[in-house]
Amino acid sequence: MPVQDPFQISVPDDAIATLEQKLDLARLPDELDEASWEYGVPLADVKRLVARWKDQYNWRKHETDLNALPMFTTEIEVDGFGTLNIHYVHQKSVVRDAIPLLFVHGWPGSFIEVRKILPLLTESSSDHPSFHVVGLGLPGYGFSEAPKKKGFSGRQYAEVGHKLMLALGYDEYVTQGGDWGHLITRTAAKLYGPKSSPPGLFSNPIQYITHLLLPYTAEERARLERRRWFTIKGHGYFEEHATQP
Question: Which terms in the Gene Ontology molecular function aspect does this entry carry (predicted)?
């Protein structure tokens, strides 16, 4: 098993002072009369956020709270991309034979998404299973080292998560992923999980024929319409990052 180094967050005072100075020097633009979110973030919201970060947010308090998490770093070799120093949370359950869980955040999230549910996931309960939780910090996010070469994609992120679980002694595990993390865990399942095929005429004939013959319900039509709306109106950042990262 590779070396697992305990990790604590320690942001230098001068970095915090520099951030406060940048916020103090911010010069905000005017906006159109009666502007709304259709024209971008309203100016009043930007001013409120600047004031919050500059005058009200106590980083040292939150840093202390985060350092209560069982955090570690370790070296993971990624095929074709060298070795990366990976940061993660590892909280074992009080239940000895609990289920190993790889928890993968999305964009623009981080490992702290697992923090609030750690007690629930790791506790002993008659109502739900218990888990040994590994909260992965994806390469390039938070405190995990970023790759230096182009072409690092979902397959490589999945490789990092899988190799981390193996290094921790979890030969079999389940995954949870949100947003981008969902695509990563799905890729991990395809690469390293049991092989399966999607529902089809022979693998699931009832579901297949039902889909072909029965009309959509009103609720399903509403969901399809919502999807169409999102594709047209809510897909801008996806297109931006896909074409002009």
Answer: epoxide hydrolase activity
